[in-house]
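Quick one: structure for this chain?
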Amino acid sequence: MLDVIDREGWDSPTATVLLRYLRERVVRPLAISVGLRGAAASQAEATAWQALWMELTKPTFRTVASPWGVLGQIARRQLLGEIVAARFATNGRRGWKLEVASRDGVIGPAVSLDVLLEIGWEPESHDLTFGEPPETAGLVEAARRALCLVGWSETEATAILAAVLDAPVPRLDERTQFPGWRLMAAALGIPPWQARRLTIALRGTSDWPGVMARIIAEGPSVIDSPIVRTALMATRRRSDRSPVLAARRAEQELTDACPQRHAS
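Got it. Here's what it folds into:
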């Protein structure tokens, strides 16, 4: 078929048959086997299919001993790379580096609270203590305890979480990715800088998972980590760095301390 394609080009019927076969009979079953579903499967499938197409155009591919084995390995590597990249919200190469670091317990995967809200994770009512799914109740309770640990009262923590969870999900064309903090400041009677830092610390940013995302990804015990504690302390003291900067500094200090612990 490749010899025919050399004569007729990649727009030929032969090329169409070959590429369709690769996508439907090679890439798609592999995507299912590695656990991909829905939109993630479609995106990873397209990435792997493109990689196979590029491999077919290389002259060296004509001389390999096991061409189908080579194509299968490339497709699987691309699919797993998409999973790792999505897990850490980055590109494939950096995703593999972060994956290795996560195995050592240095970092955890990134989880976007906005994405969870978009796919249906949210309280069904404004009452955070009644009718909640178990996983939502556990998240709220852990987040409430995390706020109380840095000095917020239980009443304040409950009101803060209600305001954060009820805040609208930002649209792509909005100037701010932290909508709702001004309303929170007015409703709770707290300074605007505190309301904004609370929103950032709890919901996170596009490149930093917030406290609530970390609870979902790593479990309720994560509220005792220095990273979470440092991020939330920035909501209590205006002189502190922003939650993201403070948390990243704490994370870097933990990373720097790892070689010392291993050495000892």
